[in-house]
Design goal:
By secondary structure, the chain is α+β, with helices and mostly antiparallel strands. The protein has helices at 38-43, 52-65, 67-70, 110-128, and strands at residues 24-35, 81-89, 94-105, 136-146, 153-154. It has a five-stranded antiparallel β-sheet with strand order 2-3-1-4-5, covered by helices on one side. The longest helix is centred in the C-terminal third of the chain and has 19 residues, at 110-128.
Length: 158
């Protein structure tokens, strides 16, 4: 699959027609890393605006649900699951964010998972910028996806 599916024969942007695709369970997992000062890392759950991780979790879930409103050619999906996980890495003052999105449908949920981790990371930045304006957000990528015509894919598969 080396073609850009969101372009027609004239090179114009189009929404992909998924009507002929079989409904199947599809799951996507995405990842992001938020790096910050040790000072902010120590305060992350007790900031003046509140618990940054609790707020980021809700923001990530809400973002996944609104992906088609944010990315022009994404199909609106009735998500059956959005889970946001945080791994706190004290030795590097980093927070790893993982989003798992699930749907039974005719198209995948990769963009929803990527949107979820991105907005969760941006929410942590927003809540912590008064303590550390140099917060770095990076390593946003798809970890794996299952289901659909193209089958399963994993970043770590050999």
């Amino acid at each position: 699959m080396n073609t850009l599916t969101h372009l027609n024969h004239a090179g114009e942007a189009v929404m992909v027609d998924v009507s002929a695709k079989t409904i199947s369970e599809r799951i996507a997992t995405a990842h992001a890393v938020v790096s910050m000062s040790a000072e902010l890392f120590a305060k992350i759950q007790d900031l003046p605006k509140g618990d940054a991780l609790a707020c980021a979790r809700i923001a990530g879930i809400m973002a996944a649900k609104k992906t088609s409103d944010l990315i022009p050619l994404c199909h609106p999906l009735a998500l059956s699951k959005v889970e946001i996980q945080f791994e706190l890495l004290a030795e590097t003052s980093q927070i790893r964010i993982k989003a798992i999105c699930k749907v039974s449908g005719q198209t995948g949920v990769e963009m929803e998972a990527l949107t979820a981790v991105s907005i969760a990371a941006l929410t942590i930045h927003d809540m912590g910028k008064a303590v550390d304006p140099s917060i770095d957000i990076g390593q946003i990528h798809l970890l794996e996806k299952t289901g659909g015509k193209s089958g399963n894919w994993s970043r770590h598969a050999k």
